[in-house]
Design a protein that fits this description.
With 296 residues, this protein is α/β, with parallel strands linked by helices. It contains nine helices and seven strands; from the N terminus they run βαβαβαβαβαβαααβα.
Amino acid sequence: MSKTVLISGASSGFGALTARALADAGHLVYAGMRDLNGRNTAAASDAKQYAAEHNVDLRPVELDISSDESSRQAVDTVVSETGRLDVLVHNAGHMVTGPAEAFTPEQLADLYDTNVVGTQRLNRAALPQMRGQQDGLMVWVGSSSTRGGTPPYLAPYFAAKAAMDALAQSYALEVARFGIETTILVPGAFTHGTNHFAHSGKPADTDIVSAYETKYAGLMEQVSQKLAELEPSWADVAEVAKEIVTVVGTEKGRRPFRVHIDPSDDGAAVVNGVADRVRAELLRRIGLDDLLHPAA
C-alpha cells in the first residue's frame, strides 16, 4: 500500500537516495530540503527531473529543521495536499571532525540543534497529525557510533547522534499507544557515496587545534584512511535506502525496532542487541511491555 512520506535532509546522501527509492517503490514522497530557491535549487530540480523521468511521485518541499515555522509549514503542505502523513524519516544531520576541546560551546549547540533539536521541531509539527490518525511510522537515521567503536576527533558528532538515539528510544514508547511505530536505522561509517566526511565542520579555535597537532599530527587523516580500509569493496550506501524501503513496506507491528547497515562491522550491532534486550526486559518487569509494539 502506498504511503505518504516526509523525509528531512533529502537534498543529498542517504536522504536523496531514500527519497528516490521510496518513490520507486510506489510511495508519495516529500523530499524535505532547506532553501529550495537558493543553495538547494539544483537538488530540487534533480528531484523533479527524477520524478518525471521515472514516472514517480517525488515532491521537493521546503524544510529547514532549525525553524519551528518551516517544520510546521512542511507538514502542513503534506497534509493539505494528501490528507495524511504516514511516515516521517528523520535523516537531516551534520558531521564535524577535529579535537573536541577546539569546538566552541556555540558550535556544539549548533550541532545539537541540527542533529537533535531539529527532530523535536519536526516531531512537534508531525505527531499531532499521526496521533489523530492513530497510525504512523517514525524512522530515525542514527549512527553505529552511538554504541560501536568510536575513534577520536569525532566526539561532538558522536555525542549528538547518541542523544538523538536516546530520544528516539523514549519517543518509541511514548507514541506506541497512539498506534505509531518506530524503527531506528543504524548506518556504519560509509566513507564513499555520501559527503559526510568531505563536508564536515571544523573547530573554530585554531589555537587549540595547533596545540593538539603537537601530539596528534595527522590523526584525522589516519582515522579517515583506516575507516576507508575497513570498508569492504562491496559496501554501498544505497543499502541504507533499500532497508528503509523494506521497513516502510513491512506490515505494521512486524517492523524491527532497530536495523544495522554496517559493512565494516564496528560492533554496534552486538552492543545494541544487548541494550535493546535489557530495555525490553525492564519494560516487562514494570508492566509496560505493551509499549514495545504499536497499538493496533
